[in-house]
């Protein structure tokens, strides 16, 4: 039995492709649609909506600022517009890059930053701090808080991709195989 365990352990230790590939699969299965649907709620009408976020986009991203201007987006600054557009596009572009495995480390790091900002907005902008179950706590026997429990897992999966890359079944791997520096090293 010991030799079987050792053989399986050795084989798994050499399976460098498995962890990043599974991390991308878990991301696609659990978070891709979540972020895309969230991004869709932020788009304005028609093609121009890519550059003119919905009122809901501003309300989600800047809840206190929107309340202060009684939900009149014309009273917000260009900075608010730029953040709303960039945040909306990020919810489409970064997850897509992760799933196809292109610029994966960069995209995963961007998603970590996105989740941190999203969590801070939920806590401070949307009043999550007033509800201890939203922030949650580790080591408390409950696994259902939005920030400390759920988003910690999200960030962990993304950090796997930042550290390990996309794995061999990705556009990153295909690009590496086709670059002259890599080809000359394999000659």
Layout of secondary structure:
Layout: H1 2-13, H2 18-40, H3 55-61, H4 63-68, H5 78-100, H6 104-125, H7 132-135, H8 146-164, H9 171-177, H10 180-185
- How many domains make up the 3D coordinates? 1
* Euclidean distance between termini CA atoms: 42 Å
How much of the sequence lies in strands comes to: under 5%
What portion of residues is helical?
55-70%
Broad shape:
flat
Main location: membrane
Pfam family, one: DoxX
Protein name: DoxX family protein
Membrane topology: Multi-pass membrane protein
Describe this structure in words.
Pfam families: DoxX. It is found in: Membrane. InterPro entries: DoxX. The chain is mostly helical and 187 residues long. It has one domain. Helix content is 69%, strand content 0%. It has helices at residues 2-13, 18-40, 55-61, 63-68, 78-100, 104-125, 132-135, 146-164, 171-177, 180-185. Helix 2 crosses helix 8 (146-164) and helix 5 (78-100) crosses helix 6 (104-125). It is flat and about 70 Å long. The model has no long low-confidence stretch (mean pLDDT 91).
Task: Write a brief structural summary.
The protein contains ten helices and no strands. With 187 residues, the protein is mostly helical. The protein has one domain (17-180).
Salient structural properties:
single chain; 187 residues; mainly alpha; 10 helices; flat
């Amino acid at each position: 039995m010991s030799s079987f365990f050792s053989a399986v352990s050795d084989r798994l230790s050499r399976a460098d492709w498995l962890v990043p590939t599974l991390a991308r699969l878990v991301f696609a299965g659990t978070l891709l649609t979540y972020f895309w649907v969230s991004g869709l709620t932020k788009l304005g009408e028609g093609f121009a909506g890519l550059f003119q976020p919905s009122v809901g986009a501003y309300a989600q991203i800047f809840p206190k600022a929107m309340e202060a201007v009684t939900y009149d987006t014309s009273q917000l600054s260009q900075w608010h517009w730029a953040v709303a557009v960039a945040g909306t596009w990020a919810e489409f572009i970064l997850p897509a890059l992760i799933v196809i495995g292109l610029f994966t480390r960069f995209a995963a790091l961007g998603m970590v930053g996105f989740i941190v900002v999203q969590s801070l907005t939920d806590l401070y902008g949307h009043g999550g701090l007033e509800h201890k179950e939203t922030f949650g706590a580790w080591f408390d026997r409950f696994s259902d808080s939005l920030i400390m429990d759920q988003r910690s897992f999200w960030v962990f999966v993304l950090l796997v991709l930042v550290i390990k890359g996309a794995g061999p079944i990705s556009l990153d791997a295909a690009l590496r195989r086709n670059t002259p520096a890599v080809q000359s090293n394999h000659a």
